Amino acid sequence: MKYEILIVDDEKIIIKLVKHLVIKSELHQDPKGFLGGIEALNYLSELEDTSITQIILLDINMPDFDGWDFLDLLEKTQIRIPYHVIIITSSINKSDKQKANLYKCVSGYLEKPVSMENMEEIKNLSRLSNFFEPQ
Amino acid sequence: MTESIKKVLIIEDNMGDFVLISDYLEEVFSKLLIDQVKTYKEFLKKNPTEYDVILLDLSLPDKDGENLVNEVLMYSENVPVIVLTGYSDKGFAIKSISLGTADYLLKDEMKPDILQKSIIYAIERKKVFNQLEDSEKRYRELFHLSPLPMYVIDKNSYKFLDVNRTAISHYGYTKDEFLDMTVFDIRPESEKQRAMDIISGDGEGSEMKNPGTFKHTKKNGEMIDVEISYNEIDFKGRKALLVLANDVTLKYQYIDAIETQNTKLKEIAWIQSHVVRAPLARLMGLVNIISLEGEDPELSKVEILQHIVNSTQELDKIIRNITNKTEQINIDEIQ
């Protein structure tokens, strides 16, 4: 099955870092980075091919429009494209993790710093198993 | 009962009457000491409290009538005074009861048993009366010596009718100043209506009421928070409230300080998990990248190093910020 990976983070260096890991772990060859939730939502709404699943690696703490705002808006606007959200956050608060569980589209929750191990974890997420079948 | 009567004072200038009364007394009381004074002036030289009862003739050479009764009563304190008089003075004798004498006896009708009965009644009544007075005094002391400020206010005029010592020292007004003031004089403008509503409320039932916390102002202008409890009482025939005002200003200041402290601690906890963690996680991520094999042209070692430096500086700034917030928490500052 075809899929794309979107990285949403307000820090350029983190996007670069995650991109590097995604490529190196062969999760995807061309992940796309977005410095804010609005940009990512715009990208999603303009997509024409609705058969490709979008896997969104989402940061929570972002200025103005944070990860929660992104999730709320994503669930409200009924995008026909299949998507999964994996939260990548520097927060180690239980309450953030519990809050993330309340969103149906959230398939994974990772704590920063991101590492190669995290990439393997993504591959093993049960809800995403269709995409990462051992080739 | 009769054994307790040992000493009688007879204030009588007429020798005939004195002898007659003495005879009667000796007839009904054994081992009785009888003293006589003939004038008011002589009476003042005696110590009235030595006597169990005082018998007073209403017409003395140096004083008579209401004047005499009042002076003798005042001087004899708790010793019962029985008035002796002739027919012509019967009207005034009756009146003397309302002045505070224990009884009156008409000399022409006097007999030993009547005299005996009158004396015993007078002494016993006085005993009960003194007990009542004692218990009233104890209650008054409970009010005046209470370590908490208490006062009595008139339900209709809102005036202070009585204040205890603690209220005087706590609020800074003298007793006379208080008695010239209404309850509104110790309240800020914003609380006057509330106080009026409560004081003029229905007020039935004798149970204690706790209408809550109020703002009061002391004479020096200082504003305090007081927890009020009060009872409806009858004060010298007026509908009144007995009020206890417990100053809880300090308690409230502490609660305020603790709440502020809690907010600050929550802020700090939030900073710890969200703000501190961000540059730290970035740092750890960058270090991870360095340890990986091969170099990404998008992510040069120089760039990574620059980001590491930035992250450490950011972390330092955040920690200084937290320290600053922690220093603002100082509950000991409340005096």
TrEMBL record, chain A:
Sequence ranges assigned to domain Response regulatory in this UniProt record: 4-127
Highest taxon in the source lineage: Bacteria
Keyword Translocase: no
SMART domains: REC (SM00448)
InterPro entries (alphabetical): CheY-like_superfamily, Sig_transdc_resp-reg_receiver, TCS_response_regulator
Keyword Phosphoprotein: yes
SUPFAM superfamilies: CheY-like
Residues carrying 4-aspartylphosphate: 59
Keyword field: Phosphoprotein
Protein name from the UniProt record: Response regulator
UniProtKB/TrEMBL annotation, chain B:
Pfam families the record matches: PAS_9, Response_reg
PAS domain location: 135-186
Metal-binding found in the keyword field: no
The organism's place on the tree of life at top rank: Bacteria
UniProt modified residues of type 4-aspartylphosphate: 57
This protein's UniProt keywords: DNA-binding, Phosphoprotein, Transcription, Transcription regulation, Two-component regulatory system
Protein's recorded name: PAS domain S-box protein
Species for this entry: Belliella calami
